[in-house]
């Protein structure tokens, strides 16, 4: 079966490449993936695979039934959305939508899942159970399309027993994959702070309550949350990426807005940090005579890979690719809303190497120059198909 699937993945390469390049050239932002969703639906229709669209807006769920379809159900997820980035690559498939780019590889994920659909549909008399394909919107935007798909019932009818997802990884070469069982990625929460002072002339600061100066104090004070209040063995990051206030150099504004992110690996500390951030901001602002508003919409939870499932998928990967092409991954402070799925059912989120010999195609995700070595699509389709087959194969 390894040879059969490998041959099918190689034979599908030009088709998978076509799909990926079409999606890459026509990116759409989170929860606006209308054309992408329609394109995926048309590809599934060509294969004769039944699907339901319009889930959580633009999401799609497709079902492939093998022998004894009620025996077990494996789900595999791919994302449809792109990022608000202007692409700087000069390619035949460069983004045609100004200011929007598939800089996180979701085009490749969707192409791989459609390639798997073709292979597993061809082999449906060789395995038992049901394969559920989840094409979700909005992974890049709070509250995360994954949480919305779950709320819409995608893990039911039939009930999902396990779920997989791959993600491009420009730090490994094409043909190589990476796994980490257990804790893998951080939770992520947005932090929005508004400091309300009293504006006035910059030459008369004593007549104002300067929200810019207070904001500087707030940011410095908040760094103590991680450096002095958190357990040093718990990975945590608190960063601020946006400060907005004022329009000219000689006017102190009335308000300043600050936005940042909190990431951690521990849910108890996560809740405590929310409280500390709010408390420090309010106390600091009050001490200078200002008012503060703190909003921390709860984002994605920490991503945990089920130990047994991940070890099994890693074993399948070693069988399919050879042990030398399977790597162990380190903890990451990045986040993914696949974590919502893995809170509900056993999950395995693994990495697909996408650079060329560690020499080119090495730009990081979320970078305007990001692209992949498209030979990685052969590995992505083939390994995912073999993993799905091995999980579902008739006993």
Q: Major sheet: order of its strands? A: 1-2-4-3-5-16-6-15
Helix/strand-derived class?
alpha/beta
Summed up, the domain count is 2
Gap between N and C termini = 15 Å
- Determine Rg (CA atoms, Å): 23 Å
SSE map:
Layout: H1 2-11, H2 13-25, H3 34-47, E1 51-55, E2 59-65, E3 73-79, H4 106-122, E4 130-136, H5 145-151, E5 162-173, E6 177-179, E7 182-185, E8 187-196, E9 200-201, H6 211-227, E10 236-244, E11 251-252, E12 255-264, H7 267-287, E13 291-295, E14 303-305, H8 307-321, E15 326-328, H9 338-344, E16 347-355, H10 376-392
Parallel strand pairs: 3-4, 3-5, 5-16, 6-15
Antiparallel strand pairs: 1-2, 2-4, 6-16, 7-14, 8-12, 8-13, 9-11, 10-12
Q: Could you explain the architecture of this structure?
A:
The chain has helices spanning 2-11, 13-25, 34-47, 106-122, 145-151, 211-227, 267-287, 307-321, 338-344, 376-392, and strands at 51-55, 59-65, 73-79, 130-136, 162-173, 177-179, 182-185, 187-196, 200-201, 236-244, 251-252, 255-264, 291-295, 303-305, 326-328, 347-355. The model has no long low-confidence stretch (mean pLDDT 97). It contains 10 helices and 16 strands. It folds into 2 domains: 2-186 and 302-392, Zn peptidases (Aminopeptidase); 187-295, Alpha-Beta Plaits. The protein is elongated. The strands form 4 sheets. The protein has an 8-stranded mixed beta sheet with strand order 1-2-4-3-5-16-6-15, with helices on both faces. Helix 4 links the parallel strand 3 (73-79) and strand 4 (130-136). It has 395 residues and is of the alpha/beta class.
